[in-house]
Each structure stands twice: as C-alpha cells, then as structure tokens.
C-alpha cells in the first residue's frame, strides 16, 4: 500500500508535509496546542501565529472569490489552515456560500465597498455571530490573515459573563405605515436575573412551537446566572453605546 492510502494522525500528516526536522517539531507543537485547546477550551479564542508568509510570492489579491481556488498562490498556507481547522473539528461548507467551498476567501470586491459584508473595504463590519441562523452552525470559526498592510485589527468579544437582553415592540396605530418606516420602542437590561428570565421565555416559546432545540436550551438555562464581573453601571454604559450605534445605522 502506498503512503498516500495509509491512515495518518494529524501529527504524522503534518510531519509528512514538512521538509525540515525543525519544521516537524513546530508542526507537532501546533497540533498539540490545538488538541489541548479543543479538549479543555480554556477561552473563547485561540491564536496561532508565526507562520511565514511571503507576500511577494502571493502576488496580487484576487479580484473576486469566484475561481480564486484554481492555481492559488496561497496554496501552502491554505493547507496549513485546513489542517489547523481539522485539528479542532470537521470542516464543512454551506451550499449557498462561495459555491460550497469549505474555505472562503475574504477579500475586497469592487462594488461592495460599503456593503455590510466581508467583501467591503471602506466601512466597518459590525460584530456578528457567524451563521447564527442555523442550529448546526460551526462550533468554531477560523480566520487566517495573509495580508494586512494597514494593520487593521480583528476584534473578538467573548461575552458569556456579560449578559444583556434587548427587545422592541411596534408602537400601535401604524397599520398604514410601510414596514421599514414603522417606529419601535426598545427596552433592554443587563441585570443577570432578568436576562436569564428573558432567555428562558424565548426557549420555552421555541419548545412550544415544536423546535426541539428549545428543550436543550432550557436545560442549559436551568441554573441561576452568575453575578456579572463588572459593575452594572459600567455594563449599562457600554450597552448604551452599543444601542446608540445600532440606532445610528438602522
Ligand atoms: Fe462573518
């Protein structure tokens, strides 16, 4: 049986792909680190850095993701990235996104400059939970940066200990007003007990409407919430800014 058909562990595969002994040692450390992270998950984010990227060899950024997978100059980095993702779980793609590719190209596209999409280039892309609409969304999202000439930062928020609920209802008497012009009144709180009650109510409604995820969520929400680590006044101030920002662009 040739080498190509023998089963390999991730460490063996990484070693097989490496040319130098010290490269094999580095790969091994990366896999061990990712394995430890996957099992213990001590934080919401892990960072792998130090991969050599020859920007000159990469050449120009493709103008569009369509067709960019053919003859990619970033193929070695893409293999590394895929192996890292595979160490954390099963990589998969969505049929409706980038032709089902499991690795997406996030690049600026002409005409998308001001879109609220990863392909924009002239505006801030708001925080979002990736594929939040789907019950089988990925446990992890992996990002690999190949070029960053402007030193743009990636901002991640792990807010498990910062509960917040924001809700709104339509003001009465607007039946003749177009949907997008209707006024809503909003209310929000960062008080942990109230946030937990609101979450339980939503999960209960989901369950009553026949969504099995509701029951699992109610189980997760059974415990009383922990006290927030920050002062409620500070948390209120932060959410005030968030709501004002959303209001400004809505
Ligand atoms: Fe995204």
Could you write a compact summary of the structure shown?
By secondary structure, this protein is mainly alpha-helical. Helix content is 36%, strand content 5%.
What's the helix-strand series? HHHHEEHHH
Share in β-strands: under 5%
Number of helices, where a helix is a run of at least 4 consecutive DSSP H or I residues: 7
Bound molecules: fe (ii) ion
User: What is the 3D form?
Assistant: globular
Query: What is the helix fraction of residues, given as a range?
Result: 25-40%
Low-confidence stretches: none
Query: Main sheet?
Result: 2 strands, antiparallel
* Count of the separate structural domains: 2
Which value, in Å, is the CA radius of gyration?
A: 23 Å
Count all strands and give the number.
2
> Which strand order do you get reading across the main beta sheet?
1-2
Q: Between the first and last Cα atoms, what is the distance in angstroms?
A: 61 Å
Average of pLDDT: 84
Helix-and-strand structural type: mainly alpha
């Amino acid at each position: 049986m040739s080498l190509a058909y023998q089963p390999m562990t991730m460490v063996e595969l990484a070693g097989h792909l490496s040319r130098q002994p010290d490269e094999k040692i580095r790969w091994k450390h990366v896999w061990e680190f990712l394995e430890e992270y996957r099992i213990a998950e001590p934080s919401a984010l892990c960072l792998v850095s130090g991969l050599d990227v020859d920007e000159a060899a990469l050449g120009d950024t493709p103008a569009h993701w369509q067709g960019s997978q053919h003859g990619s100059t970033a193929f070695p980095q893409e293999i590394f990235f895929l192996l890292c993702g595979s160490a954390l779980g099963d990589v998969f793609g969505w049929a409706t996104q980038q032709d089902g590719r499991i690795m997406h190209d996030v690049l600026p596209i002409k005409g998308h400059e001001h879109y609220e999409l990863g392909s924009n280039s002239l505006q801030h892309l708001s925080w979002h939970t990736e594929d939040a609409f789907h019950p089988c969304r990925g446990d992890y999202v992996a990002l690999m940066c190949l070029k960053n000439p402007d030193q743009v930062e990636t901002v991640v928020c792990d807010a498990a200990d910062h509960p917040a609920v924001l809700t709104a209802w339509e003001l009465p008497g607007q039946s003749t007003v177009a949907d997008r012009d209707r006024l809503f009144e909003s209310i929000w709180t960062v008080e942990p007990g109230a946030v937990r009650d609101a979450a339980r109510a939503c999960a209960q409604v989901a369950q009553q409407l026949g969504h099995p995820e509701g029951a699992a969520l109610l189980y997760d929400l059974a415990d009383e919430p922990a006290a927030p680590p920050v002062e409620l006044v500070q948390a209120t101030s932060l959410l005030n800014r968030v709501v004002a920002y959303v209001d400004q662009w809505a």
